[in-house]
Amino acid sequence: MIKLNPKSSQKLSYFILFLATILAIAPVIIIVFIIVKNGLSAITWEFLTSMPKNGIREGGILPAILGTLSIVACAIIITLPIGVFAAIYLNEYARDDLFTRVIKLAIVNLAGIPSVVYGLFGLGIFVMFLRLGVSIIAGSLTLSIMELPVIITTARSALNNVPHSFREASLSLGVSRWQTIKYVVLPNAIPGILTGAVLSIARISGETAPILFTAVAFYVPRLPHSIFDQVMALPYHLYIVSTQIPCMSRKVIFGTALVLLLLVLTVNFVAIVARVYFRRHRKW
Amino acid sequence: MRLSIDTIVEAVIFICGIISVIFVVLIFGFLFKEGFDFLKDFGILRFVTGKFWYPSSNPALFGILPLVVGSLLVTFGACAVAIPIGVMAALYISEVAPKNMRDILKSSVELMAAVPSVVVGFVGMTTFVPVVKVFFNVPTGLTAFSGSIMLAFMAIPTIVTISEDAIRSVPWQYKEGALALGATKWQTLRRVVLKAAMPGIIAAIMLGIGRVIGETMAVMMITGNAACIPNSIFEPVRTMTATIAAEMGETVKGGTHYKALFAIGLVLFLITFIVNFVADLFLRKTQNR
User: Fold this and answer.
1) B215 to chain A: nearest residue by CA?
2) ipTM of the assembly?
3) pTM of the predicted model, to two decimals?
């Protein structure tokens, strides 16, 4: 074996590290490229705004788009206030003791539970036990529990970023603790909290396993009317058209994948831009 | 009046604060309740050591072993690819790359985490699986190997993000000390920085493993879904997660099969609980420095 001098071994190692970085970034670029290349021709106004036809082999994907939007909207409406309050508790009220440690451990574990297990739980408790049936609300509740740890963590770091002196100034004027949080801490933490919420929206839009048994149906011939309806959803639609239906046109499958990918990446991009913007325009 | 509003609001805040604990207990309780019924009837030992998963034969057999082997095989394969790439990329991004490139590189890696798993599964199925079939000359490209590679892509962002944080939080004095003794930058990186960041890197790896074990849609679409113990990584397997997702739709709600799937969910819950607990211990170690 050739023994390299330290200088050239550094060069070689850095080159290998560089290659690894390329390998880490390449998959997402390749995936986006493949889907855009094959799916772009499928995207027409009609594809986005009409009902599926001919046993969903042709036509559009409007019900799947609306289904995903309604599930995600409900989920975020449920989870955001609970998550923000939980973050307020952890950041502003909780003492550094065993009890708080247990809460933090619970959040870490909630974040690690596989999405399909959330699906099982949602099926057991919302669909069966609470008799909500397979519906938007059952799926949204399942997703909202799954997303809770992410909301709590991002909201907490947003609250934590508000300087301590802000709180002290308010408290020293005789303002109560909750009033201080409401009028001083929260307004300054809103950008961070919203960025976290937007990231969550991107994440849950693409989830399939949690809504598999709780909200979605193969095909629903009408658009969703109430939160107790079964719906179609984009990620599940992609799953069934790509695996369950024979003789499916490639164009429709790639078109569905492209719409889903665009939705998720656009929302994600908005969150990243917002984060950079707010970081630059911070008041302190 | 103000005092009472404060009291009410603070009570609500407290309840929301402990809601995570409530949910973890509730999820465990629910899985346990449904799963325990099944385990009592079928027998824990038969469930854990059974080599056959034939839920619709008569009598039905619910041996979880092939599913556990499937999950472990896919996970090990994914780790073998994702850990070296992830850690090396993290080193490059935090220590070697030009400063103005760091955020761009990190965000690009993290973008992969945003791609829905069903999209990863779909792309793997249409483009990677046929390549595996031809290249390795196997009867089907839907194998544990294909699943491992696609899952590795999904674990890499987790590993990079958390390792990079750990590497960046190594105190600068460590580096300066090594450099002052005449070590090259790479020697410093490999022998000092990497060692100091190790607890964080281990936590990153654990969280990556947690992500891979829990991944459902992509493995269901790529690994071929054959519930038997494979002889090599180039054979189809079925993971625990894919079994739940694929079979729940066909079960009679409340029946034995339904409960057996909850028992699998319980096993998954316990595995991820342990993995995350250990990861948290290591993360705490880095933060206490």
Assistant:
1) A114
2) 0.91
3) 0.91
